[in-house]
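Can't attach files on this board, so I'm pasting raw text. These are the components:
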Amino acid sequence: MDLLHFARGPGLKIAIAVFCLGVTWRIVSFALLRIRREYSRPRESMFRYLLSGMITVGSRSWPHREFIGRTGAGEALGYSYHLGLFAVVLLFTPHILFLESLFGFSWPGLPSSLITIISVLTLTLFLAVLFRRVTNRVMRLLSNFDDYFSWFITMLVMVTGLAATAHVGGPYERLLALHILSVDVLLMWFPFGKLMHAFYIFPSRAINGALLARKGATS
Amino acid sequence: MSRLSDIAVRIEGPVRLGGLGRGVAAVLSELVGILERVALGGETATIDLRSLPMSPDDRIELQSTLGKGEVHATLHADGVSTLQETGVSGVWWVEHRDRHGDLVAELIEVTVIPKILEASTEDMAMSACELRTRLATTHKAQAGMDHATLS
Amino acid sequence: MQRSAEDLVVGEMLRRHGISRRGFIKFCTAAASAMALPPWMGPAMAQQLQNAQRPSVIYLSFQECTGCFESFTRSFAPTMESLIFNVISLDYDDTLMAAAGDAAESALAKAMRDSFGKYVLIIDGSVPTGAGGGYCTAGGKSAVDTLREAAKGAAAIICVGTCSSFGGIPFADPNPTDAWPVSSIVSDKPIINVSGCPPIPEVITGTLLQYVTTGKVPDLDEHLRPKAFFGTTIHDRCYRRPFYDQGKFAKTFDDEGARNGWCLYELGCKGPTTYNACATTKWNGGTSFPIESGHGCIGCSEPGFWDKGSLYSPLSATDWGKAGESSPRQVLELAAGGILAGGVLGVASAGSGRLRQYRSEHPLDPEPKDS
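---
Top answer:
Structure tokens for the assembled complex are below.
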């Protein structure tokens, strides 16, 4: 069995199974935990404070005015590369076809040359992000293996994807195999590192917002 | 029911074949190099036009750029081949066709004269034998006739 | 097709057929061009062959559909007839030869004996090994045995077609005859795989001509295919590549995109992972090739191409492996299984988490004081 065959066949199957297992495990394991009973009187009706929780998911998406000066650049950088990643993953025709084969529906994609431009821009932003993490003293202090490896594996997926589309760096099947293999590794790593923020941010902000609203505070 | 020929096929935009868009300039500069080398007594060379991904337009442009020279040779051997010296001295445009008239090879030869036009010494040796035999038979026949006339 | 008693050299054969020296140079030049060899090789091949004995070629067909042989007969340059009459001595071929039965079998035995160690063995069709080799027999002998015997005296083996190169259709899941490619059965002779279903005619004749004129096995890739023809993918040389790069794909056959000649990726074209000469050498003397005619490449020169899912599912969405080994359905089933297992683990983790929460709120009775 050659590399591409493995990556696209057993490799992908194992990766998706591990991904689903891991994500479910982590979500269920915190979802079923008990929230400490609040003994204070609720300041709002339950409906209102649950609604507030939902709103918090959105309102936490951008820093408060006071902090924009210090964190605005980092936030913008982060959003930009997230948008870039989503665009490339969800709007590139071969990816759309793959997802269609799994889920049965498709959607229109962007011209491939535009996707290439977006990929290159996202790659540049990624490098900028690493530079910031390494040069900023506080960030360097706080960074651990999770931070660097999550960055590395996402970067690898992008680089191998670009190489495969551009047919640069070896025979096409090998580039494609490396791309799919790196996706496999990403999927397996996903549930066990910081990438879980993709799932966590929603309940995390919602619960915080709801609890604070119950206490009569806005956030 | 529509036929194959009814299905319109349009290729949008200029199609760059194999990345050699301006193939003509590339061939010409290669020819310059070869000519200079051959002029100094170096090795002759041949360019197979089939190996260059040139569009039909490029090919026509190349042919008209090179032009026509003084010598045109037609070779009748297992089909017709034409060897045209181009306006560039020593550059020959060679087209080989098989007996059905299909183009089987198209080459540009940079040489004093394409080798295929030369007679081979082995063939000449054989021809000499055949000619000698023919002469001998003719002489014998002539001698026989003379003898008959005399007597 | 028997070798003549005088064992004429090629040059003499040509003269007897009224082909002059110049005519032969032309033939070799055309062949070199068709094989994408450097132009100087044409006259060099002619020179080499002029004074050479015509090499003996034995063509054996096993579990095949004869499509590869049919393709061979349709070669434009060099034509098969010109090859047979001028360059090679085709001493055995069961499709072409007039003889049959014992006469044919004794012709084969004689050819193998007379040219032992020197003949070129051409094989098409896969070799079934099931039922003691009984799924393919000729003259009471199984294909496996015939192959092993013929291989002993061969100078080289050229496998024509995907069946003899990689197993092809018979090898596809579930492979009921237990068919194998030639390279799995013979390992001590140089093998050249000319794969394709069928291979392009000029690729077959070109490879054969190249071998008999040079006497050397050409540069081969990791699947033993001549790099001259199998060195690049269809995608690398496809004239529709600009459309792929721009993301302009035909969605169905005969839609607007298809009529405009757009890329056929979404219609299942396997061009990016298929190595062959279709996009450059093309078919029918350079007339066209599947993509130019509007149908995606099916990847017929690659190993296992019959087991790679539908011919019409796009490369990024197709099955890989034996039937259903990694179909989308299977993947989703595994995902569901993962979710279930994850749920169980999650409940267990949550359970242990809750226990810790409880313990932290209701600490156990303090340790009794040490006496």
